[in-house]
Amino acid sequence: MRSDRRTSLPAAGSKWPAPREPSKTRLVPRNADFYLCGPAPFMADLSAGLAGFGASKNCIHTETFGAGRSLTPAVAATVPKPPHPPTGAAGLGPLVSFARSGLSVHWGPPFQSLLELAEACEVPVRWACRTGVCHNCETGLIAGAAVYRPDPIDPPADGNLLICCSKPQGDIVVDL
Ligand code: FES
Asked: Are strands 60-64 and 34-38 parallel, antiparallel or unpaired?
Protein backbone atom coordinates (compact mmCIF):
# COMPACT_ATOMS: atom_id res chain seq x y z
CA MET A 1 0.00 0.00 0.00
CA ARG A 2 1.42 3.36 -0.98
CA SER A 3 0.92 6.48 1.04
CA ASP A 4 1.30 10.04 -0.14
CA ARG A 5 1.46 11.33 3.39
CA ARG A 6 4.61 13.31 4.04
CA THR A 7 6.30 13.99 7.30
CA SER A 8 9.24 16.10 8.33
CA LEU A 9 12.40 14.43 9.59
CA PRO A 10 13.26 14.63 13.28
CA ALA A 11 16.23 16.68 14.38
CA ALA A 12 19.61 14.96 14.22
CA GLY A 13 20.17 12.71 17.23
CA SER A 14 16.51 12.55 18.21
CA LYS A 15 14.45 9.37 18.10
CA TRP A 16 12.44 8.55 14.99
CA PRO A 17 8.73 8.58 15.65
CA ALA A 18 7.07 5.19 15.75
CA PRO A 19 4.25 4.71 13.28
CA ARG A 20 0.85 5.75 14.52
CA GLU A 21 -2.10 3.43 14.45
CA PRO A 22 -2.00 2.67 10.73
CA SER A 23 -4.99 0.34 10.96
CA LYS A 24 -7.19 3.23 12.09
CA THR A 25 -5.82 5.99 9.91
CA ARG A 26 -4.96 4.19 6.69
CA LEU A 27 -6.58 0.78 6.87
CA VAL A 28 -3.23 -1.02 6.70
CA PRO A 29 -3.67 -4.68 7.64
CA ARG A 30 -1.30 -6.10 10.23
CA ASN A 31 -0.30 -8.87 7.82
CA ALA A 32 0.81 -6.42 5.10
CA ASP A 33 4.39 -6.41 3.88
CA PHE A 34 6.29 -3.30 4.96
CA TYR A 35 9.28 -2.09 2.95
CA LEU A 36 11.53 0.34 4.78
CA CYS A 37 14.63 2.06 3.50
CA GLY A 38 16.68 4.72 5.17
CA PRO A 39 19.32 5.26 7.84
CA ALA A 40 19.79 2.44 10.37
CA PRO A 41 18.29 4.33 13.38
CA PHE A 42 15.20 5.18 11.34
CA MET A 43 14.66 1.56 10.36
CA ALA A 44 15.32 0.25 13.87
CA ASP A 45 12.74 2.59 15.38
CA LEU A 46 10.16 2.08 12.65
CA SER A 47 10.63 -1.71 12.72
CA ALA A 48 10.09 -1.69 16.48
CA GLY A 49 6.95 0.39 16.01
CA LEU A 50 5.61 -1.97 13.37
CA ALA A 51 6.36 -4.97 15.58
CA GLY A 52 4.43 -3.24 18.38
CA PHE A 53 1.58 -2.69 15.93
CA GLY A 54 1.51 -6.45 15.38
CA ALA A 55 3.35 -6.80 12.07
CA SER A 56 5.27 -10.05 11.71
CA LYS A 57 9.06 -9.76 11.56
CA ASN A 58 8.89 -11.77 8.34
CA CYS A 59 6.78 -9.02 6.77
CA ILE A 60 9.15 -6.15 7.64
CA HIS A 61 11.72 -5.75 4.87
CA THR A 62 14.55 -3.26 5.27
CA GLU A 63 17.34 -1.77 3.23
CA THR A 64 19.93 0.46 4.83
CA PHE A 65 20.78 3.76 3.19
CA GLY A 66 24.01 5.21 4.43
CA ALA A 67 26.88 3.53 6.20
CA GLY A 68 26.18 0.63 8.53
CA ARG A 69 27.29 0.32 12.11
CA SER A 70 30.84 -0.71 12.90
CA LEU A 71 31.82 -4.01 14.48
CA THR A 72 35.26 -3.61 16.01
CA PRO A 73 35.82 -6.16 18.80
CA ALA A 74 38.11 -5.18 21.67
CA VAL A 75 38.24 -1.58 20.50
CA ALA A 76 36.75 1.03 22.84
CA ALA A 77 33.74 2.79 21.36
CA THR A 78 34.26 6.37 20.31
CA VAL A 79 32.00 9.01 18.88
CA PRO A 80 31.99 8.35 15.13
CA LYS A 81 33.40 11.05 12.89
CA PRO A 82 32.35 11.67 9.32
CA PRO A 83 34.45 9.73 6.81
CA HIS A 84 37.43 11.67 5.52
CA PRO A 85 40.57 11.08 3.42
CA PRO A 86 43.43 9.47 5.35
CA THR A 87 46.00 11.74 6.92
CA GLY A 88 49.36 12.11 5.22
CA ALA A 89 50.24 12.30 1.58
CA ALA A 90 47.54 11.19 -0.84
CA GLY A 91 48.09 7.78 -2.40
CA LEU A 92 48.90 7.34 -6.07
CA GLY A 93 47.20 3.98 -6.52
CA PRO A 94 43.78 3.01 -7.81
CA LEU A 95 40.75 5.02 -6.77
CA VAL A 96 38.84 3.35 -3.94
CA SER A 97 35.27 4.58 -3.56
CA PHE A 98 33.30 3.93 -0.37
CA ALA A 99 29.83 4.29 -1.87
CA ARG A 100 27.68 4.56 1.26
CA SER A 101 30.10 6.99 2.85
CA GLY A 102 30.37 9.17 -0.25
CA LEU A 103 34.16 9.14 -0.14
CA SER A 104 36.72 8.31 -2.85
CA VAL A 105 40.43 8.15 -2.11
CA HIS A 106 43.49 6.77 -3.83
CA TRP A 107 45.11 3.59 -2.60
CA GLY A 108 48.57 4.07 -1.14
CA PRO A 109 51.46 2.00 0.25
CA PRO A 110 50.76 2.47 3.99
CA PHE A 111 47.78 0.14 3.76
CA GLN A 112 47.92 -3.65 3.76
CA SER A 113 44.20 -4.13 3.06
CA LEU A 114 41.05 -2.30 2.06
CA LEU A 115 40.03 -2.62 5.72
CA GLU A 116 43.08 -0.62 6.81
CA LEU A 117 42.31 2.10 4.26
CA ALA A 118 38.68 2.26 5.39
CA GLU A 119 39.78 2.55 9.02
CA ALA A 120 42.20 5.36 8.14
CA CYS A 121 39.23 7.15 6.54
CA GLU A 122 36.95 6.43 9.54
CA VAL A 123 34.55 4.64 7.23
CA PRO A 124 32.36 2.36 9.39
CA VAL A 125 33.63 -1.22 9.08
CA ARG A 126 32.96 -4.63 10.57
CA TRP A 127 35.70 -7.12 11.34
CA ALA A 128 36.87 -9.72 13.85
CA CYS A 129 39.69 -12.02 12.72
CA ARG A 130 41.33 -9.77 10.12
CA THR A 131 42.74 -12.88 8.43
CA GLY A 132 40.01 -14.03 6.05
CA VAL A 133 38.34 -16.57 8.35
CA CYS A 134 35.26 -15.10 10.07
CA HIS A 135 33.64 -13.19 7.18
CA ASN A 136 32.53 -10.36 9.48
CA CYS A 137 34.20 -7.93 7.07
CA GLU A 138 32.35 -9.29 4.03
CA THR A 139 31.28 -6.31 1.96
CA GLY A 140 29.46 -5.77 -1.31
CA LEU A 141 31.70 -5.19 -4.31
CA ILE A 142 29.87 -2.68 -6.51
CA ALA A 143 32.50 -2.28 -9.21
CA GLY A 144 36.06 -3.31 -9.88
CA ALA A 145 38.09 -6.22 -8.59
CA ALA A 146 40.40 -7.06 -5.73
CA VAL A 147 43.28 -9.43 -5.09
CA TYR A 148 43.61 -11.46 -1.90
CA ARG A 149 46.75 -11.65 0.21
CA PRO A 150 46.43 -14.07 1.90
CA ASP A 151 43.70 -16.04 0.20
CA PRO A 152 40.71 -16.49 2.50
CA ILE A 153 39.87 -20.00 3.68
CA ASP A 154 36.36 -19.66 2.26
CA PRO A 155 35.69 -17.21 -0.56
CA PRO A 156 33.00 -14.57 -0.02
CA ALA A 157 29.59 -14.84 -1.67
CA ASP A 158 29.39 -13.85 -5.33
CA GLY A 159 29.47 -10.06 -5.61
CA ASN A 160 31.16 -9.60 -2.22
CA LEU A 161 34.71 -9.34 -0.99
CA LEU A 162 36.56 -9.71 2.30
CA ILE A 163 38.12 -6.32 2.90
CA CYS A 164 40.49 -7.52 5.65
CA CYS A 165 42.72 -9.45 3.27
CA SER A 166 42.19 -7.79 -0.10
CA LYS A 167 43.70 -4.94 -2.09
CA PRO A 168 42.22 -3.13 -5.06
CA GLN A 169 43.13 -4.37 -8.50
CA GLY A 170 42.38 -1.09 -10.30
CA ASP A 171 39.66 1.38 -9.43
CA ILE A 172 37.07 -0.17 -7.15
CA VAL A 173 33.72 0.72 -5.54
CA VAL A 174 32.75 -1.02 -2.30
CA ASP A 175 29.47 -0.93 -0.41
CA LEU A 176 30.74 0.86 2.68
S1 FES B 1 37.63 -9.84 9.49
FE2 FES B 1 37.37 -11.99 9.50
S3 FES B 1 37.29 -12.48 7.40
FE4 FES B 1 37.72 -10.38 7.40
From this structure: parallel
If one residue of 75, 153, 162, 167 were mutated to test the ligand 1 pocket, choosing by the most ligand atoms within 8 A of its CB, it would be: 162
Number of CB atoms found within 10 A of residue 97's CB: 19
Q: What is the Å distance from ligand 1's center to 128 Cα?
A: 6
Cβ count within 10 A of residue 10: 13
pLDDT digits (tens, 9 = 90+) for 32-89: 888 877 666 667 778 888 888 888 888 887 776 656 666 777 666 676 788 999 998 8
Task: For each of the domains in the chain, give its residue range(s) and CATH number, in order of start.
Answer: 1-65 (no CATH), 95-174 (3.10.20.30)
18's CB contacts (< 8 A; 6+ apart) are 45, 46, 48, 49, 52
